[in-house]
Backbone:
């Protein structure tokens, strides 16, 4: 049990290396097995996870560069547990649903390497190790988009790479500075997030450090106005790339806000609540409108992702247990739902080699099973009660209601606008007569696709009805996070704000 | 009548041990020449291995050195920095000389003089870093430079001659600058030893400041040429292109290491006394050196030229450490340069292996198009090149990332946050051009009918060399700790 986190991180990488020796026609089965083992390992972790502990579990420390306080330090708490499970699960599902035929072996090995970096990001507790995995994830993603993508793939891949690279380099300066501040206050070097949580930072230092970390995270999320790389990346990426990008990679950014920005800079977080909320609101409303105008199904979902990521940011900056817990739940549910939607678009793209809405129509009569699954996922994406999408969205908005009812109302538009663009897309492509001759003979989803999609549907429904197994451990760790914030806040007004946001019962206003 | 007292020197007082490493290199060169006199038909591999052997002995003498710091009438200064940088120089030369084991026959390697000159050059660099007397530095610098000009010119291509002449002419100007700068400082302080110059200047509270500044500018010109600082960098790309890729890789590491040590010793005088003007001059130079070549590299279509500009920019990075001036920064400079050595060794050697004698299909030896779709035709070659490029771009956990991190960290810690941000932005810009060859190799399709041959120049020793560089690049995270310990030990005992 002691090394389970390291095994979780490095197992896919080793499997990838060994994968070079597997023959091309067997590589799919190999990848399915590897990712399934990885998923089972993460479930095993969950079973052994002690729900009564709010702090880090299964921690492991190996000194790397002790002169500079850099350790290989991993651990897990309620916040990261389900993100890890979601990562391993979605990787497995995307491998099962994989339809790509070109250079399959390279693709699978790349995805396995990517899995290592994604799991690593969520498990790392040392800032430099976190940065290592964070930055390393760019390389396989660059290759996936650039080698298996559409016509504009090179542009999309380079844009994705450079955009996120610049942001994270600025974040690196912030991390190095924090390490230095820790050195000045204690006389020892440390890049451990837990150590950093012990230190109180002056207000103005918090402000600029917040901005430095913001550069890294906001581009990854992506927040408005740094979101422009995402539609390109999604539009050009192959299905598996889009699924992983939407499901996991975007969550790294929001996870970074929860893991770094909130506990390290509580005063700055309160100070920037409204600007962050404003950016999130613009993202929610603006990108929802943009999504409505799209003619490409994949772009609709890509923009809807940006919109939903706005809700997650809003939930995080509610700075209360409901909001943060809800947004973490939303990260997981958005991972599942958007991943499923991208996969569904992939299914139709495989058959017709087009993703344009105007090329379809009346699909429901040709492909009934496909239409049903699509419909369920769409409802979950819109946030229909009793689906997984509702819980997180509701909690995030509920959390932010305590901060500002008016802004929450605007954010609530996401549900309406989401329903509009999603249903319009659904109507145009699934209902009505079958206009195009080619569409009449389309085959419904086959066994393999069902094997990938059915678990997603099941999760969407089950967790929509009964989210408690996830919400409970999440909330436990989030409560501790909020306590840390309150303890660490150096301005009395910040403490009061956090207390107010976390008050139970009626909302007080000055 | 003036009675000149007879000179009487005790042999022991010379501290002969201080020059033993250089002597080994020189003896090695002479041995190679003598061997050639006896038998002219020997294979080049003998000379390469003799060079390796003598450099190994040279390294052994360095590592085992425990004699006094000063020697030879105080001309030699073998402090921690000197030992450390000599170590880097010798190890780098050792690794780069193995690249001469190429499969294709290039005419320069058929001359044993090539390897003799190589060893003379190493000795020159070793003298350069282990002295604080401007005259001995000058002698070392000139010895090394003269050899280097010749080495470039021995390559049998038109543009090699052009490169050598260009390098020589510009080098001559730099020599003049150095002599002028030294003269000014001698006139001001009556000594040519940097330590004493520093004492006199501080004692006189920097009297005659404009003239001192003039001297600084002359020295900056001289050192700037060696270190390829902007605006003295214009020769770099042409010379690198004219020289073989292996020699270009060598030039991007070893002469600069020597130059950095001299710059460190010289500018320390002003940095430690907090001289604002010199700091501003250095600051501007560093920022320009990092930025301008970076921007030029963006538009290069030849990987060799691109790497040339990138190594100018990297020299700017390392130079920033001298500007920052803390112990951590000095250690960071050495760490950076050692990791850069490993990465560049890999990068340039990969180019060297892919060198073919006819390159008519493309505009130049290492045109980007030549590498289109390499991953489909030669996956391991492509992966290796990709690895070194990612390391250069500073993607963790590959070697150069740790150097960048430590260097940027030292800038942040010393309060140079703006400089750190400029470094970061430059790293981001550099990310783009390092990505370009990766895109060509991994994401584009091979050009049909281009008849490109890769690895035509490969032999087992060079492949082993590349493998070594690759392993170090990948596993560098486990080597940083001992490296930092060794480096900071040597840096601290010499008081920087």
Residues:
């Amino acid at each position: 049990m002691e090394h389970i986190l390291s095994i979780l991180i490095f197992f896919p990488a080793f499997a990838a290396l060994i994968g070079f020796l597997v023959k091309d026609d067997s590589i799919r089965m190999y990848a399915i097995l590897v990712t399934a083992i990885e998923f089972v390992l993460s479930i095993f972790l969950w079973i052994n996870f002690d729900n009564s502990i709010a702090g880090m579990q299964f921690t492991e420390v190996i000194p790397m560069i002790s002169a500079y306080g850099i350790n290989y330090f991993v651990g897990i708490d309620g916040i990261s547990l389900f993100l890890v499970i979601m990562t391993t699960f979605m990787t497995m599902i995307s491998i099962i649903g994989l339809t790509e035929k070109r250079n399959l072996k390279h693709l699978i090995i790349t995805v396995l390497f990517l899995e290592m970096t994604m799991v690593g990001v969520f498990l790392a507790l040392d800032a430099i190790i976190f940065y290592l995995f964070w930055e390393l994830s760019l390389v396989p993603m660059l290759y996936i988009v650039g080698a298996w993508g559409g016509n504009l793939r090179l542009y999309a891949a380079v844009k994705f790479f450079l955009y996120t690279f610049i942001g994270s380099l600025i974040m690196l300066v912030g991390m190095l500075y924090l390490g230095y501040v820790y050195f000045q206050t204690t006389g020892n070097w440390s890049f451990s997030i837990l150590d950093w949580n012990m230190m109180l930072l002056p207000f103005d230092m918090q402000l600029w450090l917040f901005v430095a970390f913001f550069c890294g995270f906001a581009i990854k999320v992506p927040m408005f106005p740094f979101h422009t790389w995402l539609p390109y990346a999604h539009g050009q990426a192959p299905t598996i790339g889009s699924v992983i990008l939407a499901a996991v990679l975007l969550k790294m950014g929001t996870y970074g806000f929860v893991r770094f920005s909130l506990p390290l800079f509580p005063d700055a977080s309160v100070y920037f609540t409204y600007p962050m909320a404003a950016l999130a609101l613009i993202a929610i409303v603006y990108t929802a409108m943009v999504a409505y105008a799209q003619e490409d199904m994949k772009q609709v979902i890509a923009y809807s992702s940006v919109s939903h990521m706005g809700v997650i940011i809003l939930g995080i900056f509610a700075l209360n247990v409901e909001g943060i817990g809800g947004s973490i739940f939303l990260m997981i549910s958005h991972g599942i739902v958007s991943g499923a939607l991208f996969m569904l678009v992939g299914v139709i793209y495989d058959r017709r080699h087009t993703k344009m809405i105007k090329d379809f129509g009346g699909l429901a009569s040709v492909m009934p099973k496909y239409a049903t699954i699509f419909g369920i996922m769409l409802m979950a994406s819109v946030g229909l009660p009793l689906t997984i999408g509702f819980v997180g969205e509701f909690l995030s908005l509920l959390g932010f209601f305590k901060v500002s009812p008016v802004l929450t109302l605007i954010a609530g538009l996401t549900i309406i606008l989401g329903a509009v663009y999603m249903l319009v897309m659904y109507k145009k492509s699934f209902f009505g007569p079958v206009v195009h001759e080619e569409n009449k003979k389309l085959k419904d989803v086959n066994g393999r696709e069902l094997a990938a999609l059915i678990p997603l549907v099941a999760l969407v429904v089950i967790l929509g009805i009964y989210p408690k197994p996830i919400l409970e451990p999440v909330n436990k760790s989030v409560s501790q996070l909020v306590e840390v914030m309150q303890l660490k806040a150096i301005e009395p007004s910040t403490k009061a704000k956090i207390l107010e946001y976390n008050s139970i019962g009626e909302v007080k206003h000055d | 009548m003036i009675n000149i007292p007879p000179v009487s020197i005790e042999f022991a007082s010379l501290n002969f041990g201080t020059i033993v490493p250089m002597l080994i290199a020189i003896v090695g060169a002479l041995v190679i020449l003598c061997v050639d006199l006896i038998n002219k038909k020997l294979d080049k591999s003998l000379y390469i291995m003799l060079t390796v052997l003598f450099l190994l002995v040279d390294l052994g003498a360095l590592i085992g050195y425990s004699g006094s710091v000063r020697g030879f009438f105080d001309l030699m200064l073998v402090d921690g920095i000197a030992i450390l940088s000599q170590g880097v120089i010798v190890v780098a030369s050792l690794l780069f000389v193995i690249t001469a084991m190429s499969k294709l026959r290039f005419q320069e390697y058929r001359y044993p003089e090539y390897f003799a000159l190589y060893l003379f050059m190493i000795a020159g660099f070793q003298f350069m870093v282990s002295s604080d007397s401007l005259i001995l530095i000058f002698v070392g610098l000139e010895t090394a430079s003269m050899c280097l000009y010749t080495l470039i010119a021995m390559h049998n291509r038109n543009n090699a001659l052009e490169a050598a002449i260009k390098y020589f002419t510009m080098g001559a100007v730099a020599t003049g600058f150095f002599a002028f700068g030294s003269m000014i400082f001698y006139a001001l302080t009556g000594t040519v030893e940097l330590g004493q110059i520093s004492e006199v200047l501080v004692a006189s509270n920097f009297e005659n400041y404009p003239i001192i500044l003039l001297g600084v500018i002359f020295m900056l010109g001289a050192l700037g040429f060696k270190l390829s600082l902007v605006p003295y960098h214009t020769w770099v790309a042409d010379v690198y292109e004219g020289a073989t890729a292996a020699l270009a890789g060598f030039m991007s590491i070893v002469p600069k290491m020597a130059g950095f040590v001299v710059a460190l010793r010289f500018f320390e005088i002003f940095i430690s006394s907090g001289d604002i003007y010199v700091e501003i001059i250095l600051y501007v130079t560093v920022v320009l050196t990092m930025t301008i070549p970076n921007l030029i590299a963006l538009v290069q279509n030849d990987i060799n030229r691109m790497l040339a500009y990138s190594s100018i920019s990297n020299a700017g990075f390392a130079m920033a450490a001298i500007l920052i001036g803390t112990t951590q920064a000095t250690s960071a400079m050495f760490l950076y340069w050692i990791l850069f050595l490993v990465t560049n060794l890999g990068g340039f050697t990969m180019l060297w292996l892919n060198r073919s004698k006819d390159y008519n299909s493309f505009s130049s030896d290492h045109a980007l198009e030549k590498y289109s779709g390499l991953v489909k035709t030669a996956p391991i070659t492509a992966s290796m090149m990709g690895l070194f490029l990612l390391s250069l771009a500073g993607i963790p956990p590959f070697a150069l990332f740790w150097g960048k991190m430590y260097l940027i960290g030292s800038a942040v810690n010393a309060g140079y946050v703006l400089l750190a941000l400029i470094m970061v932005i430059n790293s981001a810009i550099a990310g783009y051009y390092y990505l370009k060859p990766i895109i060509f190799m991994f994401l584009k399709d091979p050009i049909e009918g281009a008849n490109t041959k890769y690895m035509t120049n490969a032999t087992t020793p060079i492949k082993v060399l590349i493998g070594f560089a690759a392993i170090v690049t990948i596993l560098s995270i486990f080597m940083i700790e001992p490296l930092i310990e060794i480096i900071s030990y040597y840096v601290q005992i010499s008081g920087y």
